[in-house]
Each structure stands twice: as structure tokens, then as C-alpha cells.
Amino acid sequence: MGEKAKKVTISSRRRFLTDFAYATGLGIMGGLLWAGYAEKAKSSPLTLRPPAALDEPDFLKTCIKCGLCAEACFNRPSNIDRDTGEPRPGTIKMARAQDDVTIGTPFFIPRDVPCYMCDDIPCVVACPTGALDLTKVTNPKTGELDYTMMDMGLAVVDQNSCIAFWGLQCDACYRACPLMDKALRLEYDKNERTGKHAFLKPVVDMHACTGCGLCEKACVTEKPAIRVLPREIALGKPGAHYVKGWDKKDQQRVKERVGKDVTTHDKRSAKNPMDYLNKGVEY
User: Fold this and answer.
1) What pLDDT tens digit does each residue of the chain (283 aa) get?
2) What is the rounded CA–CA span in Å between residue 227 and residue 212?
3) Rounded-to-integer distance, Cα 131 and Cα 144, Å
4) Angle of CA points 7, 10, 13, to nearest 5°
5) Where are the domains of the chain?
6) For 131, which DSSP code?
7) Alpha-carbon distances of 214 from 41, 113, 217, 226, 276, rounded to whole Å
8) How far is 102 from 124, CA to CA, in rounded Å?
9) How is 268-281 classified by DSSP, letter by letter?
């Protein structure tokens, strides 16, 4: 080639604009990816929070993701493996990118490491913001910490896969429960199939269960037949239409609905009951 290619020179102003556009594009792309992931993580309804956590929306506003609760959980004096003398993994984890939990917030998975319900509840004491609310685990009568007031979730038994409901002898969850015969009891029932054996079925008391997960960890089945779920997931909700007439506490709910229209309005309610009753179910 006879002529040398001319070297293109770029002005400083043009280089500045090019670099600025490049950086802005990267920033927008990163922001979109982060926002998308954060939104997905928030949507996880099965997250179990440490003891005394505020309701999820308030918890997310209050928790500063400092990790002091997880640190206190790991460093508690009782967290020592008796065989090796080394510290065991802590119950509380801080959510990472691969977890389906809001990044940086504390949570726990009972099947991995359950909550051991420490008397001094160090995780709650360590929280600097009140995201783990000390008043929720403080007995108002004595002013002392009370681990029985913890509320992390509710244990739910799958009767189809629990081998105690098959008639096999198993009480692993019952023996693991720190509130034995309060949060979890065994209910005797006759085995009609054999006529000479008994069922010992685990029954959870929703008022006493703290959701510590020791039962789930102890369950012997391949996938645990007893699981801890957030109460919002585990429990139903009857609504204001139904009231226990014999329960004064439940009647209090009725007072709160005064002035509200609780009548169901739909196509069927607009008809006379004689027009649709005894005509079978419409699919």
C-alpha cells in the first residue's frame, strides 16, 4: 500500500461524551438487574426470620443488615460441637445473592440449623434497631426474657407422609420439642387395621409452638413430614363473617367490624335463594 492510513484523532470533548454514555449505560443496566433481583427476593413468602422479628414490611424497613444478630447467634457460648470442641454453624444466616430472601437480611432454615431457643436470646439483645423487638420476648409480669414467647413460625404436620400416622413407632419430633407436651404432644388412637396396635400421632398446639424448627430437623423421613412455615402461610383466616359466639376474645373481632358492610355482593347474592338452591353446583 502506497499511502499510510490516516490516524483518526478524537477530541477531548467527544471522548468525554463517549465515556459518559458508556458509564451511564452500565449504571442503568446494573440498576435494572439489581432492582429485578431485589424485587424477586422480597416476594419470598416462606422466609423464616429470627425470634421477635417485626412483621415483614416493618422488619424490612427497620433492619439495617448489620449482621449483629447472626454474629451473636454464632458466638453464643453454647454453640460448641461436643465431639470436636469447635463452634457449630450458627442458626441465623445473612441472605446472599443465591438465597431467595432480601439480600443482607437475617433468616434461618430449620432443616439446616434450627433455633435452639437460648435462655438469654442473644440475637434479639444484639439488634441495635428494634427490628428484632425485645418487648416481644420479655415477660410483662417479670420483666425478664422468656424464650417461650418466641414466634418464628408454626410447625405443620403432613399426615400423609408422617410415618406415625401409618402406625409405625416414631416420636422423633416429639422428643426434640423443647416445649414437649405443650407445643407438641402425642395423641393416642387405636389402629383399626391391625386391631392390636396404636397410633401415637404428633399434634401441634398453634398457641405454644414457637417455630424453632427442632422438630423439623429431627424428622426421620427423607423430606420432613413436619415443617415450620410462617404463620401467615400456615394459618387460614375465617374473615369477619364468622364468629365464635362462645369466645369473648373472638367476639372482640365483631366489635371491630361495626359500621362495615360484610355482606357478600356477587351475581348469586342478587338472586332469590329459591332460584339457585337445590340445583346442584355450577362448574
Assistant:
1) 445 556 667 777 777 777 877 777 777 766 656 655 555 556 589 999 999 999 999 999 999 999 999 999 999 999 998 889 899 999 999 999 889 899 999 999 999 999 999 999 999 999 999 999 999 999 999 999 999 999 999 999 999 999 999 999 999 999 999 999 999 999 998 888 888 788 999 999 999 999 999 999 999 999 999 999 999 999 998 877 788 888 888 888 767 665 666 667 777 778 887 777 777 766 6
2) 10
3) 19
4) 170
5) 44-151, 153-235
6) S
7) 26, 8, 5, 10, 51
8) 19
9) TTTS-HHHHTTS--
Amino acid at position 139, single letter: N
Distance CA 283, CA 267 (A): 15
Q: Could you tell me if 213 and 111 are in contact, meaning their C-beta atoms sit under 8 angstroms apart? A: yes
Looking at residue 149, what DSSP letter applies? Answer: G
Cα–Cα distance measured from residue 210 to residue 267, given in angstroms and rounded to the nearest whole number: 43
Pairing type for strands 226-229 and 197-204 reads unpaired
Look up cell 397410633; give the residue: 199
- The whole-model pTM stands at 0.76
CA distance 131 to 142: 23
Domain spanning 153-235: which CATH class is it, in words? alpha beta
CA distance 51 to 135: 11
d(CA 49, CA 4): 69
Taking residue 204's Cβ as centre, other Cβ atoms within 10 Å add up to 20
In the 8-state DSSP scheme, what is residue 148? G
Residue 198's H or E segment, with its range, is strand 197-204
